[in-house]
Amino acid sequence: MKISRLSPLAGVVLAATLALAGCSGSSDEPTDAASSGAAAQQDGGDGAEQTAGEGIVSPDDLPEEPAFDTKAKGVIKDVAVENCETGPGDVAANGTATNSGKFARDIVVTINWAVSSTSDVVARGVATLEDVEPGESADWEVESSFDVDEPVGCVPTARAGQLR
User: Fold this and answer.
1) How many CA atoms lie within 13 A of 155 on its CB side?
2) What is this structure's pTM?
3) 151: Cβ–Cβ under 8 A, 6 or more apart, which residues?
4) Looking at residue 28, what DSSP letter applies?
5) Residue 54: per-residue pLDDT
6) What are the tens digits of pLDDT across the range 29-64?
7) Read out DSSP for the chain?
8) Any idea where the domains of the chain sit in the sequence?
9) Residues 76-116: pLDDT tens digits?
10) What count of Cα atoms within 13 Å lies in the side-chain half-sphere of residue 149?
11) % helix, strand, coil for the chain, step of 5
12) Which of 57, 79, 127, 157 has a 20 to 30 Å separation from 93 between CA atoms?
């Protein structure tokens, strides 16, 4: 009896194909869960829509990060979050950012307030620190608001480079 073995690449392709097949729907008809979820949609007053069993839909008016001239570098290790309120209602976060680079650069600190169970972003604050000298630290603070009845956490990100 001859036993054939699949190559590792064939195994990965097979697994990916099966995973994607499970994600794609084959019917144009909405499922009962989708139609009942749409009927249970609520607006928390801040633009974030809460849908029963389907998570939160991020508001359309989340602040955008400014654009960089060059490829920005992730610098979360250079950011300290000293305080971050998790609401609901008006929330704020603050901390410091240090330029660990060799040249003066701009640092953008973003705080996303995200639902803990689904990672849906319900609010965002963006702080822009311009021309931070090497080795220097700058204070930052952001504010936002949301009205969601689920646990929310603060998710910081930071990038450095030259802003446009």
Assistant:
1) 13
2) 0.68
3) 86, 115, 116, 117
4) S
5) 58
6) 433 333 333 333 334 444 454 443 456 678 989 999
7) -------HHHHHHHHHHHHHHHHS---SSPPHHHHHHHHT-EE-SSS-EEETTTEEEPPTTPPPPPPBSS--EE-GGGEEEEEE---SEEEEEEEEEE--SSS-EEEEEEEEEEETTT--EEEEEEEEEEEEPTT-EEEEEEEEEE--SS-EEEEEEEEEE-B-
8) 62-161
9) 999 999 999 998 999 999 999 999 999 999 999 999 999 99
10) 8
11) 15, 45, 40
12) 57
Alpha helices, DSSP H, located in the chain: 8-23, 32-39
Number of helices and strands in the chain (H, E) = 2, 10
Does the pLDDT value for residue 1 go beyond 70? Answer: no
**Edge-first strand listing for the sheet containing 89-98:** 79-84, 89-98, 137-146
CATH topology classification for 62-161: Immunoglobulin-like (2.60.40)
Beta bridge partners of 42: 50
Length of the chain: 164
Cα distance between residue 124 and residue 122, in whole Å? 7
Q: Of 68, 140, 62, 131, nearest to 103 (Cα)?
A: 131
| Among 98, 84, 92, CA closest to 137 | 98
